[in-house]
Design goal:
single chain, 431 residues, Cathepsin B, Chain A, nine-stranded antiparallel beta sheet, eight-stranded antiparallel beta sheet, 19 strands, 23% strand, disordered N terminus
């Protein structure tokens, strides 16, 4: 009897007999070292999975692209994202079928050269639908065989096991699987918003100004901005937003959820409509998006936000980004102007979005944080204010995401967009 009792207790402690190594075998990845992922160090899990990133700041973030053809739960997987609180694992998201990833693969496939944009779009859609039709049932079957029948809510399928919740989201432009604590929601509304009320915005507001690192040369740069790379996807807007939200400690709005909510497509994102669509989701979590009327080149306006610990989202022509990154690597004092190549034409239009995370009033310079593979390799990209004037889009305002309790800057310099807000610059796609 005693032996049987211990056996029963062992099964209960192990989540109904489901061993971590069994899940690892199903996943084809060493996700679990034991039956509790949440006491693992994030950097150790990142190393096991081959991810790059950092655990510094309020929210640690690691990511990695999987080798082409990699199978997870019998479905083809493309990306893994790991989120951390402190040094511990907080959430893992695996990206499966994705219109953006399929488009990227097709656009670089020599066999597809010569096809028109329309033909590639039709082929991409065909490949995406075929992958979803094939892989989602395989993923569902693998998890159900191990963990039982899922609960279904708002189009998502959820399995629970030993303090973990596995959430399969097959809708939108991406198929994702989130592994998170059973007490944490991944939804954009409803229960997740209710749980997010636990977030201590009063404490956050008091500590934000202390994140502004003030240096002897006059640089003021926000610390704790995670390095998020959009990879080869046209995801600069949702990736920049994810960086911003992770900076605040908001982890349930990952790049996939943001892209779906904000209307991102394989071609990119419309900056202002995205802001209007995401803002209601922010408000449910005690935050809001403000449109800043002053332009980026007005360093004093940027200063008023950075000094309070608030980064800015900025839409610009990024044609000179490679030169900015190269110049910033050797920055020791005031920036030197980039000399135009003799006979060179005006820089091409390269619509893009990134973050402004610092300034130097004495030098009249701004510090940027970027999500492209090139920009993400440099934690600080410095540009002159006059370059911001040349390359910024006058018709598009900067965006500040702030805790509701922080309010506006008091000078009437910001307003809050809504779903019906007129879009001043809707004809561009941001890549």
């Amino acid at each position: 009897m005693e032996i049987r009792m211990w056996g029963l207790m062992g099964c209960l402690l192990l989540g109904g007999g489901v061993w971590a190594n069994g899940l690892n075998k199903d996943f084809g990845l060493e996700v679990w070292s034991d039956n509790n992922l949440w006491d693992d160090k994030a950097e150790v899990l990142a190393e096991r999975l081959g991810l790059s990133g950092s655990g510094k700041g309020v929210t640690g973030y690691y990511q990695g692209a999987l080798r082409p053809g990699t199978k997870v739960l019998e479905g083809q997987a493309f990306m893994i994202h790991l989120y951390a609180t402190g040094s511990k694992v907080q959430r893992v998201v695996i990206g499966f079928a994705s219109r953006a990833d399929i488009q990227r693969i097709l656009s670089t496939d020599p066999k597809q050269q010569g096809k028109t944009e329309g033909e590639l779009a039709m082929l991409m859609e065909k490949e995406f639908q075929a992958m979803v039709t094939k892989d989602v049932p395989l993923i569902r079957e693998a998890l159900s065989k191990r963990l039982g029948k899922p609960a279904v809510e708002e189009g998502k399928e959820e399995w629970t096991w030993s303090g973990h919740k596995l959430v399969l989201n097959p809708s939108g432009d991406n198929v994702t699987l989130a592994i998170e604590p059973a007490a944490l929601g991944n939804e954009l509304t409803g229960r997740a918003a209710e749980r997010q009320k636990q977030y201590d915005t009063a404490k956050l507001i008091s500590e934000l100004p202390r994140r502004a690192d003030r240096r002897s040369n006059g640089d003021v740069v926000l610390e704790g901005v995670p390095a998020v790379s959009q990879g080869a996807r046209n995801y600069c807007v949702p990736a920049s937003w994810e960086k911003c939200l992770l900076y605040y400690g908001l982890k349930d709005l990952d790049v996939y959820a943001l892209a779906q909510t904000g209307g991102t497509t394989v071609n990119g994102t419309m900056f202002m409509p995205f802001t209007a669509k995401v803002n209601p989701v922010l408000e449910e979590r005690g935050f809001l998006a403000q449109l800043v009327k002053e332009p980026a080149q007005q360093v004093s306006a940027v200063k008023s936000y950075i000094d309070r610990g608030v980064p800015l989202l900025w839409a610009l022509n990024a044609a000179q980004l490679p030169e900015w990154v190269a110049r910033s690597a050797n920055r020791t004092g005031r920036l030197k102007e980039i000399k135009p190549v003799r006979g060179a034409k005006e820089p091409p239009d390269a619509p893009h979005a990134l973050m402004i995370i610092g300034y130097n009033s004495g030098f009249n310079e701004l510090c940027l944080s970027d999500s492209t593979e090139l920009g993400a390799s440099s934690p600080e990209i410095w540009i002159m204010a006059k370059e911001a004037e040349q390359m910024g889009y006058r018709e598009t305002e900067m965006v500040a995401v702030v805790p509701k309790a922080l309010g506006s800057d008091g000078g009437g310099a910001a307003r809050t967009p809504g779903a019906g807000t007129p879009v001043p610059y809707s004809g561009k796609k941001w890549y």
